[in-house]
Design a protein that fits this description.
This protein has about 450 residues and is α+β, with helices and mostly antiparallel strands. Helices cover about 50% and strands about 10% of the residues. It has a domain of about 200 residues: Orthogonal Bundle (Cytochrome p450). The strands form 4 sheets. It has a 5-stranded mixed sheet with strand order 1-2-8-5-3. It has a 3-stranded antiparallel sheet with strand order 4-12-9. α9 crosses α10, α13 packs across α17 and α15 packs across α17. About 45% of the residues are buried. The chain binds protoporphyrin IX containing FE (HEM). It holds the Pfam family p450.
């Protein structure tokens, strides 16, 4: 019966959104096929609507959107916006109330479990479905947790990760070359970041297909739960992850290392982090660093092939960093994020009421002609005069940006060196999603 109720709720929400999309509401269109397959014309319409409406496009869904480089940057940097509602509650959470949300005296999230809870007990709600840790926290909790995760991304560690990324990519390309035709996503773009994150979290004997499954279920949840089947996959993925990280915490306690989990276990013992926060942060690192980077590699190869600039990369693999930057501007893996006004705010001449939500269309900012000349052209020799927003901005700026760039560079450089005659070998199947964008299946031939 619970499944039936959930199924009915999902169907009603989808039908309502689709009705608005069909009536020409561009914000609603972003959530529905076929507009999700190519959202760029919708972004252009939203930029035009926003220009007419003073910078903010409104939807009958009640959600607003900012679509230009200027307004996206302004919202991301403005401390009057947060990822939660003004009183600390999570948006769209019908079960959350003020008491649960930790508007309490210590300012901590009361829904976050304490270190006394047993993370292996399936009855313990250690991870609410799709608990996004840092991404769902405003300062000061956000600042405290982010500081704990930051040393993992120190530049000196990047070199060590680069060496192992090169080794793993070499091995993956050897296997792919032996087959002649392979799936760029499943055989290179997904396993590479999984192995780098496994090293970052010092997870022994990583089971790549299982990680890929978890990543897909959690990544898809960024768009909301879309079916009962997905709800089950999500519940399974979060339960599996809870067990994995609970086990890792115990191992690191007994035998600490240099990795991020060991640092967090130390913080746990010092009581600067709770067990629930630790587990959800580790889960975020896993998800944030995996599906996104997979899509970066896929989107780059797709754009290189479609624009005829693959041969430019083959002629000079040293341009891989420029290809990565241009892909991040032209077709970024994370298309949008959301913020909520903590007070009445005026943006681009429009007033947004306290607690109203605004979609920040990061991918649209990259195609804004006011910020980038000839923005719909993929140009690997482009002089990047304005920063793209693919890694967001403000306090939530992507912690793994340098790592993601490095992985993208290694994958593209080695692919061009080792497979200069790489060509598509069938129909690319895109992921049909609103937040994450990239090829789900990308058959290619070595040459
Ligand atoms: C945050 C994009 C790779 C870890 C973010 C945000 C974006 C983003 C847009 C901010 C969302 C918001 O403002 O609401 C990307 C892209 C990647 C990538 C496009 C690959 C091309 C990675 C990697 C890691 C990582 C490799 C780590 C292993 C994080 C973390 C946050 C974050 C921890 C949360 C930061 C905070 O809230 O303070 N990422 N990311 N990301 N990313 Fe990435």
């Amino acid at each position: 019966r619970a499944d039936l109720r959930l199924g009915t709720r999902i169907a009603v929400m989808r039908a309502g959104g689709l009705a608005l999309a069909l009536r020409g509401d561009p914000v609603a269109r972003l959530m529905h096929r076929p507009w999700r397959l190519d959202p760029y014309p919708t972004y252009a319409r939203l930029r035009a609507d926003a220009a007419a409406a003073g910078g903010v496009a409104r939807s009958r869904t009640g959600i607003s959107a900012v679509a230009t480089h200027e307004t996206c940057t302004a919202v991301l940097r403005d401390r009057r916006f947060g990822v939660r509602l003004a009183d600390g509650r999570m948006p769209f959470d019908p079960t959350s109330d003020t008491e649960r949300s930790g508007a309490g005296a210590d300012g901590r999230d009361a829904s976050t479990p304490t270190s006394e809870q047993d993370p292996t007990d399936p009855g313990t709600a250690l991870i609410e479905p799709i608990d996004l840790s840092l991404l769902a926290l405003d300062p000061p909790d956000h600042t405290r947790l982010r500081r704990l995760a930051q040393p993992t991304f120190a530049p000196k560690r990047l070199e060590q990760y680069r060496q192992s990324a090169r080794k793993v990519t070499g091995r993956l390309l050897d296997d792919a070359a032996a087959r002649g035709t392979f799936d760029l996503t499943a055989d290179l773009a997904a396993p590479l970041p999984i192995s780098v994150i496994a090293e970052l979290l010092a997870i022994p004997d990583v089971d790549t297909p299982r990680f890929a499954r978890w990543g897909r279920a959690l990544g898809a949840a960024l768009d909301g739960v879309r079916s009962v089947r997905h709800a089950h996959a999500l519940a399974r993925a979060t339960a599996d992850l809870r067990l994995l990280f609970a086990d890792l915490v115990e191992r690191r306690r007994a035998d600490p290392g240099e990795d991020v989990i060991s640092q967090l276990v130390h913080a746990l013992d010092e009581e600067t982090v709770t067990l629930g926060e630790l587990v959800s942060l580790a889960q975020l690192l896993l998800v944030a660093g995996f599906e996104t980077t997979t899509n970066l590699v896929g989107n780059a190869v797709r754009a290189l092939q479609a624009s005829g600039s693959w041969d430019d990369l083959v002629a000079d693999p040293g341009i891989a960093p420029a290809v990565v930057e241009e892909t991040l501007r032209y077709d970024p893996p994370v298309q949008l994020t959301a913020r909520f006004a903590h007070e009445d705010v005026e943006i681009g001449g429009r007033r947004l009421r306290k607690d109203s939500g605004v979609l920040v269309l990061l991918a649209s900012a990259g195609r804004d002609p006011a910020a980038h000349a000839d923005p719909d052209r993929f140009d690997v020799h482009r002089e990047q005069t304005t920063a793209h927003l693919a890694f967001s901005g403000g306090v939530h700026y992507c912690l793994g940006a340098a790592l993601a760039r490095m992985e993208g560079e290694v994958a593209l450089e080695m692919l061009a060196e080792r497979m200069p005659r790489l060509r598509p070998a069938g129909r690319m199947r895109p992921r049909v999603a609103t937040v994450l964008r990239g090829p789900q299946r990308f058959p290619v031939r070595v040459g």
